[in-house]
Amino acid sequence: MQRRQSLRWFFLLLLAIACRSPETERPRLSRNQTLLVNLGVYTPGTQLPFGEPLRAAADLADDYCRLHPGVSIRFVQLANVSGSQEGEWLKTQLVGGMAPDIIAQNAEIAWPDVDKGWYIPLDDYLQQPNPYAAGNRRWFDLFENQALLDAKRAADGRLYCLSIDVVETGIFYNKTLFKELGLHIPETWAEYIRLLGVLQQNGYTGLTSPINLGSDWGQDVLFDMLYYPIIAHLDVEPSRENQRQYLSHYLTAKEVVFLFQKGYFTRRDSRWAEMHRLLKEWRSYWGKELKYSDTSRFFLTRRAATVWEGSWFARRLFLDPYIDFEWGIFYLPPITAESTPYGEGAEASVIGGSAVQLHVTESARLYDHLDTTIDFLQFLTAPQNFSRIIDETLLFLPNIRGVESPPELNTIRDIFTRRYCAIKWLETFDAKTKARWRRMLDLFLNDGISQQDYLAHLETIFSDYADEQIAKYKWTFDDYEKIWRKNGLQVE
Question: Are 97 and 362 in contact (CB under 8 A)?
Fold first, then answer.
């Protein structure tokens, strides 16, 4: 028995050695400290379109190490062996206590594992002053959108990540072309549709977008504008208090199932039908193919007058030497009664959010330099330091007070001050349901199926999803029913 146990531990040791990446091999503990750091897209050496490989973070690390002799910082990339950052490589590093001290990943990826002790909660540290930011009394106050930060709390109520920047979308338009045609930024949805018609009549595609943005997030924004007048009544599971400034009346999958059973998001729901009518009308001004391989080039070569893109698109517009026109940014205008009886002028909501989200792993504690790791994060997020990273990449908007973004992106910064959308429809459901919906949505938008038949198919898809989720998670809706009866709303 003892020999068998010894062999078991021997093979476990071999497995740990095999899984160890040379890039993340740690020095033996000594008086000196070496931090291993991954900053996602900001990691030095990252090659973005146009320009030299990034190095601003490396320069900052050098400055930090000069301030703190005996500390060295090594930047590492996360291996992406399974198509996502929650893959086997990172899990193995976390299990073995060999993960980088700081990693960039979405908070939602970390949430299922916070009970394992792999990540360090940051709440207490955020209540302390940042010594690198003049006059700061509480590190948390350095973050501009604090509701965004709070929205990333795990189920245990604790915060394990720092949302250091923001990604948001906007309609990038060819300002030179607009001037030539005498066009102006539309103030209502009806004006917007007329503008797209003029562009089409003059031989231009009105709108293009990457990764099906128009057909995916487009329906989310349309939904939000049409349902905004009643969304507070539909929201039978209010957001947590510290999230409401950011996720006000956001619908969960369980709420969608409950509302579907009440007749919403079916052919009985007139707003639902109007949303899809407007989406189909809008689609008629997009490019013929929904899945362009390079939609940005379609816009840059002047064949499309506008492109719905993220803030990251600005880098190409700033640095591409072949851009020979003036450009600007606007956002989707409000839907008024001129377009539909349900248009009450609610402004279009935002659909972006946190970009790079930094976590501190258990490794920092295991290797006895947690305080140094936190201190380096404070140094990194001091306004005078983080501005160097933002200015180099030109991808996202800073979420640090006192850090400016290029003036050309002020429109996107203003857009992000709006309320967040009430739902991201396709992202709400599981992969199977999403794939079924995506197939039918493409058919509908490309004239392969009528709107009435499309909505009927959606009802079948939603019904199947509801049955599966109720059986799987044993969902009950007694609490929802109490709120619903109090709201007194009925489908129209």
Answer: yes
pTM of structure: 0.84
Q: Considering only CA atoms, which of 146, 123, 127, 157 is closest in space to residue 360?
A: 123
Q: How far is CA 8 from CA 20, 95, 98, in A?
A: 19, 17, 21
Strands 161-163, 165-167: pairing kind: unpaired
Helix boundaries (H) for 165-269: 175-181, 189-201, 213-227, 231-234, 253-261
* CB burial of residue 96 (10 Å; 0-12, 13-18, 19+): middle
For 300-334, the pLDDT digits (tens) are 999 999 999 999 999 999 998 889 999 999 999 99
Domain at 169-349+423-487, CATH class:
alpha beta
Give the CATH fold of the 13-167+354-395 domain.
Answer: D-Maltodextrin-Binding Protein; domain 2 (3.40.190)
Give dist(CA 159, CA 235) in Å, integer.
25
Answer for the pair 113, 354: CB distance below 8 angstroms, yes or no: no
Nearest to 113 by CA among 127, 99, 125, 123: 99
d(CA 85, CA 110): 10
Condensed to tens digits (0 to 9), the pLDDT of residues 124-150 reads 999 999 999 999 999 999 999 888 898
